[in-house]
Amino acid sequence: MTEEMKSCSYCMEGELLDAFGIKIGELPMSKVILFKEQSHRGRVIVACKKHVDDITMLTVEERTQYMEDINHVAEILHELFHPDKINFGAYGDTMHHLHFHLVPKYRDGFEWGGIFAMNPHEVTLAQEEYDELIGMIRAKL
């Protein structure tokens, strides 16, 4: 394991991941994480299981499976939360591990019509509410 991987929240999980997310489960090529900041109900991260900085670093088979995982999670979010749109964000300027933010957006909700904030620090939930969201999503994975 490289030094970079040892400081990666998606590879190491534990305290590093707990700072912003809660692991829901795994799919063939990804880890699904509930983003603790829930200004957008149902917001998750789909992180690649392989520690790469860019999607071009995956093989064709890995990339295909990773995109299938992302699609599967998006379908779950549509089914459970009925957003008007899901925004997909893949940023990696400071977090050098391939991951997508899946952000359900609602016409009458926070930030509709604009770019979602990385962490607006607006809505955190009680543990029971996190557990409920995790249970709903996990049941569909």
Tell me the layout of helices and strands.
Elements lengths: L2 H4 L2 H4 L1 H5 L2 E7 L2 E6 L8 E5 L11 H22 L3 E5 L9 E7 L21 H14 L1
Antiparallel strand pairs: 1-2, 2-3, 3-5, 4-5
Regions with little confidence, pLDDT below 50 for 5+ residues? none
| Category from helices, strands and their pairing | alpha+beta
**Biggest beta sheet summary:** 5 strands, antiparallel
* CATH architecture assignment name: 2-Layer Sandwich
- The total strand number stands at 5
Order of helices and strands: HHHEEEHEEH
User: Radius of gyration in whole Å, from Cα?
Assistant: 15 Å
Structural description of this entry:
The structure is a single chain. With 141 residues, the protein is an alpha+beta fold. It has a single domain (3-140), classed as HIT family, subunit A, CATH 3.30.428. The chain is 35% helix and 21% strand. The protein contains 5 helices and 5 strands. The protein has helices at 3-6, 9-12, 14-18, 60-81, 127-140, and strands at 21-27, 30-35, 44-48, 85-89, 99-105. The protein has a 5-stranded antiparallel sheet with strand order 1-2-3-5-4, covered by helices on one side. The protein is globular, with a radius of gyration of 15 Å. The two termini are 28 Å apart.
